[in-house]
Design a protein that fits this description.
The protein is α/β, with parallel strands linked by helices and about 325 residues long. It has one domain: TIM Barrel (Alpha-Beta Barrel), CATH 3.20.20.70. It is about 40% helix and about 15% strand. Helix 2 crosses helix 3, helix 7 packs across helix 8 and helix 8 packs parallel to helix 10. The chain is globular and about 70 Å long. The structure holds ligand PBG. The site of ligand PBG has 11 residues, from helix 6.
């Protein structure tokens, strides 16, 4: 850093007029930075998510309509999350492997309706298990890592064959990225991207999502034996290093706003595409504060998204993505 001294340097000169502020702005937000998470459901599970005002669980045809709108706004990709009825869940999460299941059908429909839109799907068992965990449980209630990875690999290949562009393992089992990459190579799927939820924390900010997919009331215990301790930063870099070595193309930090230090460290350390997920609890928090009149809603949302860019995120998963892209399209935005 150069040495600066007042009054030769008056920092406020750069801030005095709008033209200069625009010319000295270091980071910008664009629709291409955003990924829209979307929930897909059927029957009477279709409808609003109570703890996420403005968020819908959509039937496949409505999902396709929304995907077309998202694509037209310049957003490159969506992340699809299934909501299953309790009757289709069991301890082994068997419906995750159903070739006619909700996710493969949704992938096919979206790729047919909007072929250029990137389709990202979660690889994890929690929408399909009646205990709400991302993995398989042993009799004593502990997670069986390696048995889970085998099932996840089959789930991943099923989704890749259905046309998913990006597989996003969100389960935090050890070794799953390598297993997925090996299976994709064996299946001749050399172009399928892996977006690893590499640094996913055991967070209190996932509550509304678990409401949305119906895994909250069911969840027995917590996810601290596989998701990361919020106290840890170095460990995130080790997770990311492993996933990159195993074949991840992109790595994710999750949640978002409280973990921007991890985003910055990941970008600085590895220089790979880094995604950050502004999760359901962050969405609910901003919405609640805005509804209470405590925040200027649009201003707070746009600031939160821009700060991900400043921290180093190349991609931002946010439930605000489409609305932010609409705002960015306004003249003078
Ligand atoms: C599950 C999964 C979760 C989210 C994305 N994938 C929840 C969890 O780990 O319990 C959370 C997303 C959000 O809160 O918006 N594998």
């Amino acid at each position: 850093m150069i040495e600066q001294r007042f009054p030769a340097t008056r920092m406020r000169r750069n801030r005095m007029q709008d033209f200069a502020r625009r010319m000295t702005r270091e980071h910008r937000l664009a629709p291409a930075d955003l990924i829209q998470p979307l929930f897909v459901a059927e029957g009477d599970l279709v409808g609003p998510v109570a703890s996420m005002p403005g968020i819908q669980r959509r039937a496949i045809d409505a999902l396709c309509t929304e995907c077309a709108r998202v694509h037209a706004l310049g957003i490159p990709a969506v992340a699809i999350f299934p909501v299953l009825p309790a009757a289709e869940k069991n301890a082994r999460g068997d419906s995750a492997l159903d070739p006619e299941g909700l996710v493969p059908r949704a992938i096919k429909a979206v790729k047919q309706a909007v072929p250029e839109l990137g389709v990202i799907v979660d690889i994890a068992l929690d929408p399909f298990t009646d205990h709400g965990h991302d993995g398989l449980l042993r009799a004593d209630g502990s997670i069986d890592n390696d048995a889970t990875v085998e099932v996840l690999t089959r789930q991943a290949i099923l989704y890749a064959r259905a046309g998913a562009d990006v597989l996003a393992p969100s389960d935090m089992m050890d070794g799953r990225v390598g297993a997925l990459r090996t299976a994709l190579e064996r299946d001749g799927r050399f172009d399928t991207l892996i977006l690893s939820y590499a640094a996913k924390y055991a967070s209190g900010f996932y509550g509304p999502f678990r409401d949305a997919v119906g895994s909250r009331t069911a969840l027995i215990g917590d996810k601290r034996s596989y998701q990361m301790d919020p106290a840890n930063g170095d460990e995130a870099l080790r997770e990311i290093a492993l996933d990159l070595r195993e074949g991840a193309d992109w790595v994710m930090v999750k949640p978002g706003m409280p973990y921007l230090d991890i985003v910055a460290r990941a970008k600085a350390e590895f220089g790979v595409p880094v995604a950050a997920y502004q999760v359901s609890g962050e969405y609910a928090m901003l919405e609640a504060a805005a509804a209470a009149g405590a925040l200027d809603r649009r201003r707070a949302i746009m600031e939160s998204l821009l700060c991900f860019r400043r921290a180093g995120a190349d991609m931002i998963l946010s439930y605000f993505a489409a609305e932010a892209a609409e705002w960015l399209a306004e003249p003078g935005a």
